[in-house]
Amino acid sequence: MEMEESARKSTWDVNAKETNSAPPFEIAIVIDSREVENKRNELGGDPIRHLSTALSNAGLVVETDDGANHLVYVKIAAPLEVIGRAAEKLRLRKPTNVGLDVVFDWERRDAFSRQPLGDALFSWTERYQCLIAIVNTVTGTGNTSEPLVKKLQDAGVIKEVMPLHQEQQRKWLVEHWAMRWMDFTSQPLDAIYAYFGAKVAIYFAFLGMYTQWLIFPAVLGIILNLTDQGALEPAVPPVYAMIVVVWAVVFLQFWRRRNASLQNNWGMSYESEELQTIKALTKEQQGALLRGAADQEEVYGANVSDYEAKVLGREEWLTRIRTLKNNMIAVTCILCVQLPFELLYAHLNKFAPNDLIKYILTAVYILSIQYLTKVGGQVAIALTKSQQLVNKEAAANSMIYKVFGVYFLQSYIGLFYQAILHKDFSTLRSMLAQRLIVSQLMSNVVENLVPYATYRWAEYKARKAEDQIKRETGENAPDSHVSRMDKEFLTPKYEASIGSDFEDGLFDDFLELAVQFGMVTMFASAYPLVASFALLNNLVEIRSDALKLLVTMRRPAPRQAASIGAWLSIFQNLGVVAIVTNCALLVCLYDDAGRWKIEPGLAAILLLEHLLLLAKFGFSWFVAEEPAWLKARRIKKAYIQDHVSHRLLGILEESSQEEILQAVQNPALA
Amino acid sequence: MEMEESARKSTWDVNAKETNSAPPFEIAIVIDSREVENKRNELGGDPIRHLSTALSNAGLVVETDDGANHLVYVKIAAPLEVIGRAAEKLRLRKPTNVGLDVVFDWERRDAFSRQPLGDALFSWTERYQCLIAIVNTVTGTGNTSEPLVKKLQDAGVIKEVMPLHQEQQRKWLVEHWAMRWMDFTSQPLDAIYAYFGAKVAIYFAFLGMYTQWLIFPAVLGIILNLTDQGALEPAVPPVYAMIVVVWAVVFLQFWRRRNASLQNNWGMSYESEELQTIKALTKEQQGALLRGAADQEEVYGANVSDYEAKVLGREEWLTRIRTLKNNMIAVTCILCVQLPFELLYAHLNKFAPNDLIKYILTAVYILSIQYLTKVGGQVAIALTKSQQLVNKEAAANSMIYKVFGVYFLQSYIGLFYQAILHKDFSTLRSMLAQRLIVSQLMSNVVENLVPYATYRWAEYKARKAEDQIKRETGENAPDSHVSRMDKEFLTPKYEASIGSDFEDGLFDDFLELAVQFGMVTMFASAYPLVASFALLNNLVEIRSDALKLLVTMRRPAPRQAASIGAWLSIFQNLGVVAIVTNCALLVCLYDDAGRWKIEPGLAAILLLEHLLLLAKFGFSWFVAEEPAWLKARRIKKAYIQDHVSHRLLGILEESSQEEILQAVQNPALA
C-alpha cells in the first residue's frame, strides 16, 4: 500500500516542482526531412535548425530525434515559468485559494489553488494550451513577424504537431485503471483528468456512474425474469417500465450533481460561461460586441437598450429562424428518406421467402446504410456550418443532435416495427439481446482491433520503406526496428467517425452509450433483461475504452469541457420519449389478447395531447428567455469584470479573512 | 404635448437635484400623545422632542404635525447626501455607467447610473430602505445605545412608521394612469416603478401585457362563436384549445423576455441572486457559512469539499424531506378535506329538489368556505414556518403555492364536476360566464368600495372622537375636519387577505389573475368566449387596481423584486395542466354522442403515462441540480467579490474603454 502510494507520488508529481531540472517532453513537431531538402532554398536555410533556435529562444527545452522514413521529431518541453508567463499573456482564469477566480499572475502564483493530483500549478489542458500558443507564435530569424510554424506547415515541411504520451504515467494508468478488471466501476478519475483533461475524464466518470446505477434495474430485471409472479404476471411489464423511467430521471439528476462537484474538484470555474462565449468569438466579432456597446453609449446616453434591442434583436431572430429551417430540413430528410428506407428493409426482411434472400437483403442494407450514414453526416456538417454559429461548442452540439437523429431511427425503427406493427415481441426480444450482446460487445473488440491493425499495417509499411532507403543508400544494417517516437506517430488519431470538424473520438463513444441508454429505457416494458445486458457490456466498455485511449491511440489533445454537453439533453429526452414508448408497447403487449381497441377519435385526441406537450417544449426552446442584447450586455459585463479581476488579488491580500467576516456580520449601519 | 412634458419633468425630477433645498417628506412616524402623557416619567422627558432631535442630528429634515384624536405625526425627509451616506453604510449594490454593479460609494456617485425617470440617483425602494435604516438606528440622548424607535414602539408610543403619498406625483399618476380608460393596456410603467417600486410595477407590466395578448384568443373566440362553421363544427373545440395552449406557452416565454428587459431598464442587477440569499440570512447563519468555510480550510487544506459535502449535504436532504413532508400534508388536506367538501356541494346543488334549498345550500357553502379558507391559510402559514426556510422570498413562494392549491380546487372543482361527471356543458358554460363576468367584475368594484367604506367609517369615528375631546376640553370650535395626514393614516393598508406575514396586497391581485388564466386556458375547448370575458374584465382591472393603490389605499412599502416569482411557475404549470384538461374535456364533449368508450386497461395505461410525466417533473424538483455545499461555496465567492467590488471603481477609472477594447482584440500572446 505504501509502495503504491510512493509510486503514485513519483508518477504524478512530475510537474509539481517549480525548479524542475528536466521537464518532460509533452508535444512533438513532426517534420518531413525530404520536404526540407526540396524547399531549402525557398525557406532560406535549415528550417529544423531555425525552428529549434526559435523555440529555445522562447524558453522551451527542445530535442531533435531522427525517425524512420525521413521523419524528424522536434520534441518540446517547457519549464514551469515559461508556461506561467504564457498563461499570464493568454489571460487564463484560474481559481485562487480564497475561492475567487482571477486571471493568472506569475508573480502571485502561490495564491492560486493547485491540481488535485500531483500538486501541480497547471492542469494538462492549461499546459497544452500554453505550449501550443508559444509554438504558434514563435517567429523566424529574419525580420519577418510571420509565425514560423504556420509557414512551415503551409510549405508541407511540418506534417503534424502532436501531444506525446508520458511513458511513466501511461504505465501507471494501464496498471491501475485499464487492466483493473476487478475494480468494476471504480476508476482513478483524478489521474484520468490529470492525463487526458476534463472532457475525457467526464466521459469516464459518466460511464462509471451509469454502469453503477445500471446494477439496480439489471438485478431487478433478472429477478423478474427468473421468478414466477403467478397471478401478478400481467402487472410486471408496466411496473418494471415505471421503475426504469423513474430510475432514468433520478439517475440523470444525480449525475448533474456529481458533474457539478467534479467540476469544482478540478478547479473549473462556474461564471465563465459568458467568458467562454466571448473567447469563442473571432477578434472582429469581439470588437464589434464591445465597441458596439461603447458607441451606443455615446449616441444614446444611458438608455442604450432600445438601440441594442433593435440591432441584436433582428440578428437573434434571424439566427433562430436559420436554425429552425435547418432543423426542419434535417427532420424532413430523416423522415422522408431514412424512415421509408428503414421500414422497407424491416418489412422485406420479415417477409423474405427464405434465408438466402434475407442474407442478401441484410448485406445490401448494411452497404447502403454505410453510404447513407456518410451522406447524412455530410449533410449535417453542411447544415451546421450554414447556421453560422459563432460558438464552436454550440456548433458541435448542433452537430451532435442532428447525427443522433439519424442514429436514433437507424437503431430503433426495426425494433418498433416488430413491436408496434406486428406485435411480435419474441422477435423484438431476440433483436434487443442480439444488438446489446453481439453488436456492442463486438464493437468493443473492433474498436480496439481496428486501430491496432491499422497501426501494425502502418508500422509494417514504415519498416519496409526504411529498409528500402537503407538498401538505396547502401547501408548494410540489420532489419531496422521502429523507435518510440515512430510508434507514437504511427498509432491512429482519436477521431470521430463522422469527420473531425467538430468532435473527436468521444463522439462515437457517447453515441454508443446513448443508443444503449435508449434501449434500456424505451423497451423496458417489453424485455426486462435489457438492463443486465447493458451492464455486462459497460463493465467491458470501461476497460476497453481505457485501453484504446492508453495503448492503441495517440494521446488526444486535451479539451476543457465542464459537462457532457448536448449528450445530457439527449439522455434526458430519451427519458421523456421512454414514457411514451413504454405506454405504446404496453398497449401493443396487451392488445393481442383482444382486450381493447383504440377508437380513431380517442386516438386523435391522445395524439393531440402528445403533440401539444411536444409543442410546449419546442416553443420554450424557440423563444429564448433572455433577449440577445441583454445577453450581450451580460457578456460585456463579465468581460470587464474579468479584465480587472487580476488586480483584485492585491486587494484580497490586504483585507484579511477576519475583516471580511466582520463586514458580513455587521451589514447594517454601524 | 410640450406642457405635458414639462409637467412630467416638474413632477418626477423632484429627487434629481443634488442640492435640493427642501426634500419631500417621504415617511411619517405616528405617535399617540396620550401614551406620551402616560409614560413621560418612564421614558424620561418628552419622547417627541427626543425623537425629533435625534433624527435631526442624523441629518434628516423633521416636521411635526398635530392630528385629530391625540395623534402626532413626525414627518421625515432626507437630503440626498444623507441617503447616499446611508447607502454606503448599508453596502447597497448599484449599477455603474461602465456596466458593472458595485457597492455604492458617495464620493464616486457620478459613476453610478441614474433612474430611468426623473434622473434621480436613488430609486424609491433604495431611498425607503436607507430612510428606514436611519430611523431604526438613531439612539436617544442618554448614553444608551438602544435604538430609540424600537424603544418607543415597545412602549406603545409609536403606533406606526408609514410611507407617505407624494401629492404631486400621485395626482400625475391618477391623471395619466388611473383615469386614462382609453389607453386600454398601455401604462406609464417607469412612473409606476418610480412611485411604487419594482414589485408593483412588474405586476402592472404583467397585467398589461397579459391583457394585450388576450386580444387574440378573445377575438378568435368571438368569431368562432358568432359564425357558423358548418361541417367543420366538430373540429372547432380541439383546434381552438390547441391554439390557446400554444398561445399560453408563447405568451409566458415572451413575458420572461420582457421581464428581463424591464429588470435591465430599472437597473436591477443580475448576479445578485447569491447576494440576496446571503443578505436574507440571519447574522448567525451568515457567520456560520463564511466562518465555517474558513475553518474547514485550516483543517482540511485545499480539499474542503468532502467536509462541506458531509455537513451541508445532510442539512440539504433534511430540508428537502421536511419540505416534501409539508407538501404532502398540504396535498392530503386538500384532497381529503377540501375535495369531498367541494364535490358534496356541487352534487347537492345539482340534485337539490327546489330553488329554496339551493339558496340555503349556497349560503351554507359560502359561510363554511370562508371559514375553511381561513383555517387553510392558517395551516399553510404554520406549515411554511415549520419548513424553517432561511430565505424570506422562498418562504413567501412556498406560501403562495400552498394557498393557490386551495384556491385551485375551490375555483375549478365545480366546473370539472359539471363537465366530466355530468357532461353538462351548458351549465359549465353559464358557470364560466357567471364567474368571469359577475364575480370578477363585482370583485373589482368591491375591492375599491370596501376600503373606501372602511376609510369613511374610520374617518367618521375619528371625527366623532375629536368632537368628544373638544367638548370635554370645553373648546367651542365648529365641526372639526380631518387633516391630510389624518386621512393618510386612516386609509387602509395594502395587505393580503390571508395575513400579512409573507405577502402584501399583490397576493390577492395575482391570485385573481391566476384563477382567471386557468379558466381561459383549461376550459378553452369547452367555451371559446372565456377569453373575451377575461379581456373585458382585465381592461377594468388595470384602472381599478391603479385607483385602489393611488386613492383608496395607504402607499405600500416598496419591495424590490426581480420577477413575478412563484406566480410564473403557477402560470406555466396551468399551461401544462391545460393540455390534459382540454383533452379530457374533448373526450367528454364527444363522448355523449356515443362515439367511443375508454376501456379500463387503456385508461390505466394513460393514467400511468400521465403519472410518469408528473413524476419526471417532481423528481427534477426534489433532487436539486447543484449540491448545497457547492451552492454555499458559490455564495461565499459572490460575497467576497462583492466585498472588494467597490475598490474596482478606481481601477476601472484608470483603465479606459480603449484599453479594455485593445485587451479584447489581442487576447493571444503579444
What can you see in these coordinates?
Chains A, B: Its main location: membrane. Chains A, B: It is found in: Cell membrane. Two copies of one chain form a homodimer. Chain A is mainly alpha-helical and 670 residues long. Chain A has a domain at 7-164. Chain A has helices at 2-12, 33-38, 40-43, 47-57, 80-90, 124-137, 148-154, 167-178, 189-196, 198-226, 236-265, 273-280, 283-300, 305-350, 355-386, 392-421, 425-473, 484-490, 506-522, 530-552, 566-591, 600-622, 628-645, 648-654, 657-665, and strands at residues 27-32, 61-66, 71-77, 93-95, 101-103, 158-163. In chain A, the strands form two sheets. A four-stranded antiparallel beta sheet of chain A has the order 2-3-1-6. Chain A has a two-stranded antiparallel sheet with strand order 4-5. In chain A, a hairpin with a 4-residue loop joins strand 2 and strand 3. The model of chain A is unreliable at 664-670 (pLDDT under 50).
For this entry, give a set of tags:
homodimer, 670 residues, mainly alpha, 4-stranded antiparallel β-sheet, two-stranded antiparallel ribbon, 6 strands, 68% helix, disordered C terminus
Task: Briefly characterize the structure.
In chain A, the strands form two sheets. In chain A, strands 2-3-1-6 form a four-stranded antiparallel sheet. The first copy, chain A, has a two-stranded antiparallel sheet with strand order 4-5. Chain A is globular and about 85 Å long. Helix content of chain A is 68%, strand content 5%.
